[in-house]
Amino acid sequence: MAPLLFLPLFQLLLLNCITSSHAQINITIGSSLTPQGENTSWVSASADFAFGFRTVEGNSSSYLLAVWFNNITDKTVVWYAKTISNGQEAVQVPPGSILKLADGALSLRDPSGNEVWNPRVTDVGYARMLNTGNFKLLGIDGTTKWETFDSPSDTILPTQVLPLKTALYSRLLATDYSNGRFLLNVQGDGNLVMYPAAVPSGYSYDPYWASNTVGNGSRLVFNETGRIYFALTDGTQINITSAGVDSMGDFFHRATFDTDGVFRQYVYPKSTMARRLWQEEWRSVDALPQNICTAIQTKIGSGACGFNSYCFFDGTKNTTSCLCPQRYKFFDDERKYKGCRPDFEPQSCDLDETTSMMQYEMTPIDRINWPLSDFEKYSPIDETECRRLCVIDCFCSVAVFNKPSNTCYKKKLPLSNGNMDSTLQATVLLKVPRSTNTPYMLSSGSSKWKDKKYWILGSSLLFGSSVLVNFLLISVLFFGTYCGITWRKKIQLSQASNNSGLPPKIFTYSELDKATGGFREVLGTGASGVVYKGQLQDECGTNIAVKKIEKFHQEAEKEFLVEVQTIGQTFHRNLVRLLGFCNEGTERLLVYEFMSNGSLNTLLFTDTRPHWSLRVQIALEVARGLLYLHEECNKQIIHCDMKPQNILLDDNCAAKISDFGLAKLLLLNQTKTNTGIRGTRGYVAPEWFKNIGITSKVDIYSFGVILLELVCCRKNVELEATDEEQTILTYWANDCYRCGRIDLLVKGDDEAIFNIKKVERFVAVALWCLQEEPSMRPTMLKVTQMLDGAVQIPTPPDPSSYISSLA
């Protein structure tokens, strides 16, 4: 029995030995690493981090010297060595190189024996890869000689501190570790500043964010609780990211100064079960600045994106992207920071006014602005004259017309500081070559002169030529007049779209019959007709959706004209685009862009729940589409039948509003219209059942229902629901909101629960939209601002009735 008495003591000693061995693993003098083989890295005791060689993405024969997260799939790099000479580029070596800890120093040499990198310290006794992600070189006495935490690249980790005169450089690209276009500097004067930087010189332009703590700042701290703050000399702490965003025990954390100039904090679940749920990806939980597109406006340099491009901020994913305006393309599709160029020949300054008007036109672009590129201003002026003055000016590439002030601004290349501005109220017009199928028409005041000149020319020819020539000329003139009248009848509708760029194309019935294979494949049916899938016989084999109005009568004729005229004058990324129409005999057909991912109805109400981020994206995109219809097009449009079936998804699952067959067109000076009840059960606003005018607020009511369906992934009315209280979603959501149990609406949806604050915000917005009194519902502009988090959301009043939603 005596040995048994010592067993617990032995186990305790063994546990202490194991704990001690995991607390530190020393890398001794004589140790080495190579890019290939058994010893490619030194791993921390927890195995969470590794220091060594990582293959450069896209180049299997080149290796980085780096520190990375070792226990996740993508092995995210958090530190990388930079060249000794100028520190602008990451150290990249070929196979056969060697990193060796010897003779009191750490040295990296290429296959020829040339030293490529060293940390410039001596008297090193050993090295250690810590569980914090910090790689250290230590003296024999244990003092720190050098550490990766003191020479950061683009990332910092919990417990890391950046003292004064320390900087983070963004990468040039995700796969190019050269110093990029942005610099985060803890300046020696105590100010924490973010700068755009010139590539490759590194010259800093005007700052786009600063702590404004000159003389007071001391260090940037990423503490062990996951909070990042800037410490001042008096002990004050300025929050850079939120405190306690996620459990440090359950998540890996990092903060990276990304390639787009945003400092983001990321988390990644440590549990393999959670990783499957999260799709094995890092999630951004905070960012500074919130919107880089609007944060940067620099007089020198291109701004957040390259010249002639514009910056788009996706608030749902907290990401930015750089895009080219229409008829422009990137110089380099991979290195988009280089900007865009026109894909057409620049306008010659030798062209006269008439030739310029015949060759170029102004086409509207959706809420894109280059605010610091103006070179000319006119006021007062109308939009027609603003367009003309830009077309005839070879320096002008963009015109911005502000209607309230009747002011016109001309902009020239290169365009800088471009961004997608949702608040922009002006009309932005881009100069592009006139399409061959877009007729050039003089103003109505000059058309009579043109006709008169035409007949004068004809007369002179008639009286000065032979009888045969005269006969031929008369034939041509009369034939041209007849064809002109016939053609004008055909394109009367298409020319109604005055501001939409290219008018809808006119198709023959035989073209569409051939394109649809005899109207064989049905995509869907509606009250006004059947939709078929087709493919145009053009170079790209463009897929189309053809809506055929089969039972043609007077009401259908009216509906057809409304739909053509309405859609033909609208162009927005969140509206289904009308490509053309057929108005031949008794046949009435509409040709739309094909939406490959079907309707929101199909996506949302299936056994597989769409990801939360996608649902948020769709909600914002539908809101922006409605905002355009209600407040931004030339004439206000009320959809009147907003429902998931009328929200279609393209190749990228971007949401677009479709089916304007029930839309009611209002003149600008009208505020409401009285009409028969329209819409679909479950989405109809209460005023449809009352003897009051119908306004755009009916769409806002319907949007509120759709927003709740997106949050909860269920239909508004589910008569088969096991719990009677949950039968009507609008009732149930209101009850959950009033009781403070929003989590019940997204039960089992881990992604939504992780973003519960946004869920609560969306539900609050929906309840505002569902107010029975139309005047209490917000406008779509207010709705988009509340969804984006740009404004505070007051507590919505308790709706008095949802009975109408069952109609």
From TrEMBL:
Query: GO CC terms for this protein?
Result: membrane
Its record classes its membrane topology as: Single-pass type I membrane protein
Signal sequence interval, chain numbering = 1-23
PROSITE patterns for the chain: PROTEIN_KINASE_ATP (PS00107), PROTEIN_KINASE_DOM (PS50011), PROTEIN_KINASE_ST (PS00108)
Keywords of the record, alphabetical order, are: ATP-binding, Disulfide bond, EGF-like domain, Glycoprotein, Kinase, Lectin, Membrane, Nucleotide-binding, Plant defense, Receptor, Serine/threonine-protein kinase, Signal, Transferase, Transmembrane, Transmembrane helix
E.C. code: 2.7.11.1
Q: Where is the Protein kinase domain?
A: 517-791
What catalytic reaction does the record list? L-threonyl-[protein] + ATP = O-phospho-L-threonyl-[protein] + ADP + H(+); L-seryl-[protein] + ATP = O-phospho-L-seryl-[protein] + ADP + H(+)
Q: What is its main location?
A: membrane
**Location(s), subcellular:** Membrane
Q: Which GO terms describe its molecular function?
A: ATP binding; carbohydrate binding; protein serine/threonine kinase activity
What residue ranges are annotated as transmembrane?
A: 454-480
Sites where the protein binds ATP = 548
* An annotated GO BP: defense response
Tell me any Pfam family this protein matches.
Pkinase
| Role according to the record | Involved in resistance against the herbivorous insect brown planthopper (N.lugens, BPH). Member of the BPH3 (BPH resistance locus 3) cluster which contains LECRK1, LECRK2 and LECRK3.
Q: What is this protein called?
A: non-specific serine/threonine protein kinase
User: What species does this protein belong to?
Assistant: Leersia perrieri
